């Protein structure tokens, strides 16, 4: 096995941890090949693995994020226009929080700092869809080609979505108070020790907020993996069903979670024969179009702009889902 393959298996997929948990399950008298033993092994292994990755990724991303407060971002994007500004806005979304509800305060800050509406929406779309954590976590569950293709298409949706919204002239659809929110430059003068402390605090704060969703997601994944017959799942969401992607998208919208909670479910669904595109559409709908995040967004934008955002992102998710299902053989 080459070095990269070994590092991927041991550092990202944590095969050593899987072997350790399997040995522990056997040591307490459970058969890892049985339904109960397999469920316990899946749950313990995925929970520990996700929280290890979560802690490391949040720390690194939060440290990087401390260098990009709204005012600095405005200066970075100042003077830029057109597709280049949307691309940069989407890329900045990759080093920000992990769900759309967390991204909305930053969206307000960017708008108050004077960034163009289309650029702020490129950021708002990309932030929950293609943050740096999603690359590592998808690679740990599936493979690097899947992770990189997902990120590339997610950024494409963010750029196109922001460009469309920017061209529609919907600036008047933003709530008036948003433009008068004071812009903080607090991050500009932090020392390295203060940035490290900020990153540490973010790990604690985000982990304390997402742990119920992680446990719920892993529990559902364990149930799907070990208790629900493959035939029952493929009958509804099999790769040969044209309606699988729209159904998965609709199912994901009422759910509020983040990528950490949805990945165990995605892993179990793919193992049961559900198309990769269908699973990714479900994940993206949960992270980018959940009802709580849309309710929060409606507090800062008016209904026409909210409807436009929802429509653009939905079409993008459907497009990615169908594309991945069509080209699944390239990735799996």
UniProtKB/TrEMBL annotation:
The keyword Transmembrane helix appears for this protein: yes
Membrane topology field: Multi-pass membrane protein
Keyword annotations of the record: Cell membrane, Membrane, Transmembrane, Transmembrane helix
Tagged with keyword Cell membrane: yes
Gene Ontology cellular component terms for the protein in this record: plasma membrane
Localization terms from the record: Cell membrane
Family named by the database record: Belongs to the UPF0718 family.
Name this polypeptide is given: Permease
Organism in which the protein naturally occurs: Gemmobacter aquatilis
Source lineage: Bacteria, Pseudomonadati, Pseudomonadota, Alphaproteobacteria, Rhodobacterales
């Amino acid at each position: 096995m080459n070095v990269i393959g070994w590092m991927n298996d041991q550092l990202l997929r944590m095969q050593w941890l899987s072997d350790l948990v399997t040995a522990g399950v056997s040591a307490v008298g459970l058969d890892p090949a049985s339904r109960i033993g397999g469920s316990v092994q899946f749950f313990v292994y995925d929970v520990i693995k996700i929280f290890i990755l979560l802690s490391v990724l949040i720390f690194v991303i939060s440290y990087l994020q401390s260098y990009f407060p709204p005012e600095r971002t405005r200066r970075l994007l100042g003077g830029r226009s057109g597709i280049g500004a949307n691309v940069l806005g989407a890329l900045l979304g990759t080093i920000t929080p992990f769900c759309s509800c967390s991204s909305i305060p930053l969206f307000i800050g960017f708008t108050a700092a004077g960034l163009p509406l289309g650029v702020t929406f490129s950021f708002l779309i990309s932030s929950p869809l293609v943050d740096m954590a999603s690359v590592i976590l998808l690679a740990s569950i599936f493979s690097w080609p899947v992770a990189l293709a997902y990120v590339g298409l997610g950024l494409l949706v963010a750029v196109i979505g922001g460009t469309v919204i920017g061209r529609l002239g919907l600036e008047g659809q933003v709530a008036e108070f948003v433009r008068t929110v004071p812009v903080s430059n607090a991050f500009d003068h932090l020392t390295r020790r203060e940035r490290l402390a900020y990153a540490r605090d973010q790990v604690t704060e985000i982990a304390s907020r997402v742990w119920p969703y992680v446990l719920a997601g892993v529990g559902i994944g364990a149930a799907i993996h070990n208790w629900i017959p493959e035939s029952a799942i493929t009958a509804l969401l099999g790769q040969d069903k044209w309606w699988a992607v729209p159904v998965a998208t609709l199912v994901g919208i009422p759910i509020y979670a983040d990528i950490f909670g949805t990945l165990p479910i995605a892993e179990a669904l793919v193992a049961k024969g559900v198309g990769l595109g269908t699973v990714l559409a479900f994940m993206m709908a949960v992270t980018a179009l959940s009802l709580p995040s849309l309710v929060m967004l409606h507090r800062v934008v008016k209904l026409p702009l909210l409807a436009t955002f929802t429509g653009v992102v939905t079409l993008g998710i459907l497009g990615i889902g169908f594309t991945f299902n069509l080209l699944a053989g390239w990735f799996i």
